[in-house]
Design goal:
With 164 residues, the protein is of the alpha/beta class. Helices cover 40% and strands 17% of the residues. It has five helices and seven strands, in the order βαβαββαβαββα. A seven-stranded parallel sheet has the order 4-3-2-1-5-6-7, with helices on both faces. Helix 4 links the parallel strand 5 and strand 6.
Length: 164
């Protein structure tokens, strides 16, 4: 599973990129896991479903009445945890692709780095704070194909390391 993270409010470029990322994840036989809402999350799910891929949405509310998943989420998981669900999103993926982003995305990147999950960034948060050393842990790429290739490569490496 590849986690795709970002906010709901974003521009058309981020939406197009996310749809291509979702499509590419599905074509390579992986599953999209995300926060299940709108914006980049919806676009990634739409791209994956268009080519027959699978999608999981880890949602902030307790059910569809207070946390409606986007129309392309195949498997909704309701947490009742609000933004605290962000850790579940990143830990469910073998790698994380961050596209654009808001404050929730920032927290997801932090959780991924804390837990040594590979993070691939496409036009997302940049850090320059008092000697922060995690910046080099975010693999920066410029397009959907490169993002997914790198995510799958790092996910496979992570799985191999865990198996040892």
């Amino acid at each position: 599973m590849i986690a795709v993270i970002s906010g709901e409010a974003c521009g058309p470029e981020a939406l197009e990129l996310a749809e291509n990322v979702g499509r590419e994840i599905a074509r390579r036989g992986a599953t999209v896991v995300c926060g299940g809402r709108g914006g980049v999350m919806e676009a990634a799910c739409r791209g994956a479903r268009e080519v027959g891929g699978h999608t999981i949405g880890i949602l902030p509310g307790r059910g569809p009445e207070d946390s409606n998943p986007n129309a392309y989420v195949e498997f909704p998981i309701y947490t009742g945890m609000g933004f605290a669900r962000n850790v579940m999103v990143v830990l469910s993926g073998d790698a994380v692709i961050a596209i654009d982003g808001s404050y929730g995305t920032l927290s997801e990147i932090a959780y991924a780095l804390i837990h040594d999950a590979p993070v691939i960034g496409v036009d997302t948060w940049d850090f320059n704070y008092r000697g922060f050393t995690g910046q080099d842990k975010i693999v920066r790429v410029t397009d959907a194909s490169e993002a997914v290739s790198k995510a799958i490569e790092l996910a496979e490496g992570r799985r191999a390391t865990r198996a040892e």
